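[Meeting: bench + compute handoff]

Bench side (C.D.) handed over the final construct sequence. Compute side (W.E.) agreed to return the predicted structure before the next meeting so the bench team could plan truncations. Sequence as handed over:
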Amino acid sequence: MSKLYFRYSTMGAGKSLDLLKTAYNYEERDKLVVLLTSSIDNRYGVSKITSRVGISSDAHLFDESTNIFNFINQNCFGCECVLIDESQFLTKEQVWQLTDVVDELECDVIAYGLRSDFKGEPFEGSTYLMTLADEIEELRSVCKYGEKASMNMRLSEGKPIFDGSKVMIGGNDSYVPVCRTYYKKMKRKYE
């Protein structure tokens, strides 16, 4: 029986690396996998999933208008696993489409993404993945200040900021994973 999996974490926890490792494991066993990533994130090139350690793979792009079920159904016959990077950018409708990929096409779907933004607000895609996934797994990251990281703190010129657009693509120079206690401490200090 196929399943929808949601693997979430903060920034810097190795989501893309885990996705690429999972793709390799499937491919090593001669299983067909399809990789999808958001068109929003082009830090390392268009149509690429790239980990911070430098490993990458080509991927198909999705945006808010993509019908993921139709794409998989029409282009990926015999696919055994769909791997999605940046799944927080999925829409509610697209998450429901993923359930159709699992239930109707009998294909596993493993979605990797952030649970919340730098303001502690949930992303639409993550909210519905948390609701509809058959299995949910947290990929843990450590707060450089001591505890398990559960928040994404945005930085500007090395200082925390708590206002701005929900989406700003960036890496270690723009975000740091922190525990909730430290996040709240910095928010009080800088607001």
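W.E. noted at the follow-up: The chain has five helices and eleven strands. C.D. will use this when planning the next construct.
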